[in-house]
Amino acid sequence: MVKYSGFKLNNFLEFGYSFSPKNYQLEVYDFQDEIVKENNINVKWVGNLSKARNLLDFYINTGYNLLGSYRFPTDSEVINKKFLPVYYNVSIYPLKDLKIWHDGIYDFNLGVWARSITGITASYGSINFDISNSTFRNSKNEATSDQLKVGLKYKGDVFFSGISVSYDRLEDKEISRNAYIGIKGKCWKLSFDYGRRYYKNKDRYITQIYLRFNLFFKEEIEFPIRR
User: Fold this and answer.
1) Strands 78-79 and 219-226
2) I need a labelling partner for 196 at 20 to 30 A (CA). Which of 49, 67, 161, 218 fits?
3) What is the pLDDT of residue 36?
4) What pLDDT does residue 29 have?
């Protein structure tokens, strides 16, 4: 911990090692689920700056691959370099209930931001507002997704609700629309959920509506109304 003029900086630096002897032939639903061979020295730096209240949080993670290659984070292409991409997250709190944040993955070897997400979160009492812009690029520095997402939530002692909309500039379409409203007790929750999502491979929207009951906030029962 470092202290200066009322400011406090808590941070720690961690070194680690990860090893996987081979590529595992598992059923993969997403390229990021792949388990590939690795022999990495990892470096992680986490910190927090405060003065009477939280002002800044940051997280940085990178490493060195002794095998001499790694998978690019978004399209899983093999990159024959040893220095791994940098994963990072920075959150700034100009006000107590206002957060400006950025989450990203940058590959110094290719000069490509694989992931770049910037957002603002604002709270007022039981109301929470979120807006974010996310861009994903492949190893050729081609944009594969460029989305704007807006969300509004209300969380009261008994009632809760929320709505969110995502729009993709590359597709020039609304990608998803979600809304829910519910009521809760001390150990249960009942909600009515609506969702509509665009599926590019089918070129159409699919709407799903559920009635959900949650007991002890662990066991959830779903009653499909439309799917």
Assistant:
1) unpaired
2) 218
3) 63
4) 46
Q: Which residues, 6 or more positions from 92, have their beta carbon under 8 angstroms from its beta carbon?
A: 55, 56, 99, 100, 101
Position 22 pLDDT exceeds 70: no
Q: Quote helix, strand, coil % in the chain, to nearest 5.
A: 0, 70, 30
**CA 129 → CA 108, 125, 166, 221, distances in Å?**
34, 11, 14, 28
For residue 50, give every residue at least 6 positions away whose Cβ sits within 8 Å of its Cβ, in sequence order, or none.
7, 8, 10, 56
Residue 111 backbone zone (phi > 0: left; psi -120 to 50: alpha; other: beta): left
Determine phi and psi for 95, rounding to 5 degrees.
-130, 165
Quick one: 202 exposed, middle or buried, by C-beta within 10 A (0-12, 13-18, 19+)?
exposed
Q: What is the pTM of this model?
A: 0.83
CA distance 73 to 10: 29
To the nearest 10°, report the CA torsion of 54, 49, 45, 118. Answer: 60
pLDDT, one tens digit per residue, over 190-204 is 999 999 999 888 889
Question: Given the structure tokens 């931001």, which residue do they identify?
Answer: 113
